[in-house]
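Journal club prep, notes for RB
We'll compare a predicted complex against what the paper describes. Inputs for the SN-glycerol-3-phosphate case:
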Amino acid sequence: MKIFVDSADVEEIRKIVKLGFVSGVTTNPSLIAKTGRDPREVYYELAQMVEHVSAEVVSEDPESMVREGLEYASIHPNIVIKLPMTPNGLMALKGLNEKGVRVNITLIFSPSQALLAARAGADFVSPFIGRIDDIGYYGTDLIRQVSQIFALHGIETKIIAASIRHPIHFIEAALAGAHIATVPPDVIWKLLQHPLTDIGLEKFLSDWKKGMGVNV
Ligand code: G3P
């Protein structure tokens, strides 16, 4: 499973990319709005750092979605266009596919939506785990079902597990067969750290200090 950052905070992402395990970034209109910045500048800066930057359109009719998607895609070859799982989003998907632009269909909440999006030509689908959990169902079951359906039918569309709220979502997504997990920065830091690692390192260094009589 590949690891992406789910954020539009360029400086925070720059810190995380330095750790070496991140290969992409997903943004959405809410994350972009939080930055207060020109989206095109954010997309360009992110595309310099990673091989995949999902940039979501906010237009609502297919023609405008295609126009906006082409504008973002022209910023850098690493930019992938995010479209909503709606009839207009699928019509825009066709339009962008014809222009050779990669598409990530987002706001997916059922296996049927994922299968239709894949058959419509999506390069990526983004099932949301956390928002399904929020209404009392098991979000990771969706990842597992989509993964099984895609494998059974030889579908090459990649599954991006999204709306990840804590480390268990991340682990469950990996076990359920997601190709990619897109993780908010605060969760990424939780994935990385473990109290026993800190305790163990402290013990190694203090034993070394005692035994070798040197300062470390
Ligand atoms: O960016 C798409 C998805 O990851 C949003 O997550 O936490 O707003 O449901 P969340």
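Talking point for the session: The pocket of SN-glycerol-3-phosphate is lined by residues 6, 26, 28, 128, 130-131, 162-163, 182 (CB under 6 Å).
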